[in-house]
Specification:
The chain is α/β, with parallel strands linked by helices. 25% of the residues lie in helices and 18% in strands. It contains six helices and ten strands; from the N terminus they run E-H-E-H-E-H-H-H-E-E-H-E-E-E-E-E. The radius of gyration is 16 Å and the shape is globular. The termini are far apart.
């Protein structure tokens, strides 16, 4: 397995991202999505990802932002992202739209939220891949505490690395690693280094928004 660093949900937290990158030994980087929104500087994060020539999957906040740009329905958070992206917003929107829903290698798979049990992500609805937390057997409910986490039903052999679930926090199991440790909410920004499965974490400078938002 080639060395790689996979980074959890950044949400515009550029200072924490820079601090984390300083600790990653210059290895290639992959992001689990939700690069933008809620945090202080979505533009700086996107520019940093581009400068790194890093790979990233699309998250639900990227999909939400694209939907906002099409509809222009009032949305305070996405209006702020649009303001931050400024005159180059349309170019960034095209870049975001081109992000894949998953990245797969012979050794690991990165997806924003998770996988539909028993289904390859190429066969799945992108909205499910960017939103799933729990699985009810049908996909009608994706975040029901009465249903099991999707990864409890995952029967694949490949390591899956995901984000999206800040309330759940860090997940470290044999075949799944969850990296959303709530940096934008005042938690930590987390990376996992593969193949050694070593965690690198940076504490948030502050809470940029409440976790319930």
């Amino acid at each position: 397995m080639e060395p790689v660093a996979i980074i959890g949900d950044v949400h515009g937290c550029i200072d924490e991202l820079e601090h984390l990158l300083d600790q990653l030994d210059g290895r290639p980087v992959v992001f689990v999505g939700d690069l933008i929104n809620k945090g202080p500087d979505s533009l700086a994060v996107l520019e940093r990802v581009l400068s790194l020539q890093a790979r990233a999957v699309i998250g639900n906040h990227e999909l939400g932002f694209l939907s906002y740009l099409k509809s222009k329905r009032h949305h305070v958070d996405f209006e702020e992202v649009e303001r931050q992206l400024g005159i180059h917003c349309a170019n960034w929107a095209r870049w975001i739209q081109a992000l894949p829903t998953f990245i797969e290698t012979p050794d690991w798979l990165v997806v924003h939220a998770g996988l539909v049990p028993g289904q390859h992500p190429a066969e799945s609805d992108p909205r499910v891949l960017t939103r799933i937390r729990t699985w009810d057997g049908t996909g009608k409910r994706l975040n029901n505490p009465a249903d099991p986490p999707w990864f409890d039903l995952y029967d694949g052999q490949k390591l899956v690395v995901f984000g999206h679930w800040a309330v759940r926090g860090l997940v470290m199991e044999d075949r799944v690693i969850g990296l959303d440790t709530g940096c934008v909410y005042g938690g930590q920004l987390t990376a996992v280094l593969l193949p050694e499965r070593r965690l690198v974490q940076v504490a948030a400078k502050r809470a940029y928004c409440p976790i319930s938002s």
